[in-house]
Write a structure and sequence with these properties.
The chain is of the alpha+beta class. The protein contains one helix and four strands, in the order E-E-E-E-H. The protein has one helix at 51-61; strands spanning 3-9, 16-22, 27-33, 39-42. A four-stranded antiparallel beta sheet has the order 1-2-3-4, covered by helices on one side. A hairpin with a 5-residue loop joins strand 3 and strand 4.
């Protein structure tokens, strides 16, 4: 089951960063979502092995 682990506001913006994944399978991704719920960007298949690394990359790339 896919779970959202982190939900953080984009610095200096209105969008939100979400880090999501399957904790049992050990894969995580990140996406940027607008206030209306539209996904602006999604890593989908990058396959991070650590949710915190996905969050770090999202904060630097978003």
């Amino acid at each position: 089951m896919t779970t959202t682990l982190y939900r953080v506001p984009v610095p200096y913006g209105e969008d939100t960063i979400e880090v999501y994944g399957e904790m049992d399978m050990g894969w995580y991704e990140w996406r940027v979502v607008t206030p209306t719920g539209v996904t602006r960007r999604d890593t989908k298949n990058r396959g991070y092995g650590c949710a915190e690394i996905a969050l770090r990359d999202a904060l630097t790339e978003a």
